[in-house]
Amino acid sequence: LAKTTQPISMDSYEGQEVNITCSHNNIATNDYITWYQQFPSQGPRFIIQGYKTKVTNEVASLFIPADRKSSTLSLPRVSLSDTAVYYCLVFSSGSARQLTFGSGTQLTVLP
Amino acid sequence: DGGITQSPKYLFRKEGQNVTLSCEQNLNHDAMYWYRQDPGQGLRLIYYSQIVNDFQKGDIAEGYSVSREKKESFPLTVTSAQKNPTAFYLCASSIAAAPYEQYFGPGTRLTVT
After folding, report:
1. Which of A40, A61, A80, B18 satisfies CB 3.0 to 4.6 Å to A74 for a cystine?
2. Measured between alpha carbons, how far is B85 from B89 in angstroms, rounded to an integer?
3. Which of the residues A46, A93, A105 would you substitute to probe the B interface, choosing the one with the greatest number of B C-beta atoms within 10 Å?
């Protein structure tokens, strides 16, 4: 399973765009990139997933360069309620079919 | 109101006792999962099941057991063989075709003393 590396923590201010980058150097051809959000004492919540280029939904965008060795989760105009831990995961569609969570990035949005 | 329920939210047990954590879903999902989370850490997969009457070990299955007799239910037993059982336990489910998009329950915080 591909290992992911992301910053331990980030601070931002309300209304700003936040970009969280994740490194996954040994990603395989049949792997997908997935992001989850977790609030304290709650289960994680799926945000977005992608394979290459750009994916956008109602809450975030995911940018994946051509070599797929990294990805960037973009949160537009964050609010205080976006303060949470964000996990970057590489999902294998092959035989493993597991999600492996790292330690995530603690995003703190300041007023 | 569809979703995943886990009960109880908090559970206290004495060392040496087995304890079973409940997980029920009414999302009609084929796949279900159990994770453990320790303070400041990510989630680690204990067991998962892709179909009724079948389940596979995850990364940290030792000291745990599961059953999947019904599609809706996937109970986890923490046995006395689990050396450090105190943790936050999370159950999740997904459709078989999209295991990357898992829906999580509220979790059970188990404390063993």
Report:
1. A61
2. 10
3. A46
Rounded to 10 degrees, what is the CA torsion of A24, A27, A31, A33? 10
CB A12 within 8 A of CB A107: yes
Cα–Cα–Cα angle for A101, A34, B67, rounded to 5 degrees: 55
CA distance B99 to chain A (A): 7
How many CA atoms are closer than 13 Å to the CA of A103, on its beta-carbon side?
Answer: 9
Q: Indicate the residue of B42, B88, B109 with minimum beta-carbon distance to A102.
A: B42
User: For an interface test with A, which of B7, B25, B43, B95 has the most A Cβ atoms less than 10 Å from its Cβ?
Assistant: B43
The yes-or-no verdict on residue A58 having pLDDT over 80 is: yes
Q: Give the tens place of pLDDT for each residue, A10-37.
A: 999 999 999 999 999 888 888 899 999 9
Structure-block tokens of residue A84: 């949470």
